[in-house]
Amino acid sequence: MTKDNAGINHTSEGEHQQLVDVMRGFMDNGKPKVGIFWYDAANGSLFGVEKIDAEQAEFVNGHATIGKLHKTYWQKQHHRAVSKGDEKSIFFSEHNYTMIPRGRIFLDEQTDRFYVCVGHWLNDIDQEHFREVLEDEFNLPEDFDLVIDIHGTSATAGRKS
Fold it and tell me: Where are the alpha helices (DSSP H) in 47-140?
């Protein structure tokens, strides 16, 4: 890196390419993703999103998703918030991750379709906006299914054909 007369740093072509290569890992490649999230209904936004490209996920019993658990993610964020004294963080104040609307995105191996498992909170929100937020964050096709799935019992809800 060199500095010009105005004190601005400039990278060489090789350094620039290295920086671009590093940043590429943080760029959205446009591929559909599977993962977990929480939904802030008051703001109509997702948080605590963890995702991977669907093509990288391994199928288990015909379904692919990220290997990370909501519980594990929440505990890690809670410990971080407590150690930083970040009392404004929801991770600091809420100990029970199940009390916040959350969901998981899967890919079905047999049908090659995506579906999103959520709780009954789905019935209390603007589902059209929620679908748009999911499509944008996870690069999902418009025809994904929303499935209410609580402790092994499920019913399809909000399917868009």
Answer: 70-84, 90-93, 127-138
